[in-house]
Amino acid sequence: MESGSPKPPAKKPPAKKPDAKKIVRPYERPRGGEARAVSDLVPQIGRAAFRRFGFVQSSVVSRWPEIVGEAHARVCLPEAIRFPPGAKADGIMDLVVLPAHAPLIQHVIPEIIDRVNRFFGYKAVARVKMRQGVVKPDAAQKAAAPVSLKPIPLELGESLRDIGDPELRTVLESLARSLGTDEDERR
Questions:
Q1: Which sign does the torsion angle of CA 150, 153, 154, 158 carry?
Q2: Residue 105 above 50 pLDDT?
Q3: Residue 103 has pLDDT above 90, yes or no
Q4: What distance in Å separates the CA atoms of residue 156 and residue 43, rounded to the nearest whole number?
Q5: pLDDT band at residue 6 under the 50/70/90 scheme
Q6: Which of 121, 120, 114, 171 is nearest to 148 (CA)?
Q7: What's the pLDDT score for residue 101?
Q8: Domains of the chain, first to last
């Protein structure tokens, strides 16, 4: 060997890989990342179903009373909006109407078309096709639950008669009934 030439660097032994059993990793879901609440997924599912059956926006159905008014919403309900192939304007809206109210709705169809187009922001609906059928009442329109048959304690009932707001009176009567049951249980 020559004394003047540099020595090649010494090779380091390869580093040992740690055992897979010793590495602790946080749990990762196999798909999709973090879990999501069902309430976050429902609008997406509903939107897909509405599109499949002819609605561009599911909000037309959910906000129907706001669009046409409470009186008309009780007697008619949109079923679908069908557009010409390749277009998103000048569609035909299918409307289910209670049979007794069909003549009335026939006269307000131009107003309904105007309100729906105003909701969309462009001329989405050009015609309305009516079909007579059953219009299911909205959950909010259903009758209120019957008041409990248990009488209100006499001393509380007299003071509640002076309250003018019926909703507040009902809530206070419910509270009085629950207080009456608590007192009965204590005795």
A1: negative
A2: yes
A3: yes
A4: 45
A5: low
A6: 171
A7: 93
A8: 44-138 (3.30.300), 154-186 (no CATH)
The pLDDT of residue 172 is 79
Q: Summarize the confidence of residues 46-60 as an average pLDDT.
A: 62
- Residue 185 CB-density burial (10 A; 0-12 exposed, 13-18 middle, 19+ buried): exposed
How big is the chain, counted in residues? 187
Residue listed under structure tokens 């707001």 = 165
Distance of CA 91 to the CA centre of its chain: 25
Burial classification of residue 57, based on how many CB atoms lie within 10 Å of its CB (0-12 exposed, 13-18 middle, 19 or more buried): middle
H/E element, 82: strand 76-82
Phi/psi for 138 (5° steps) reads -70, 155
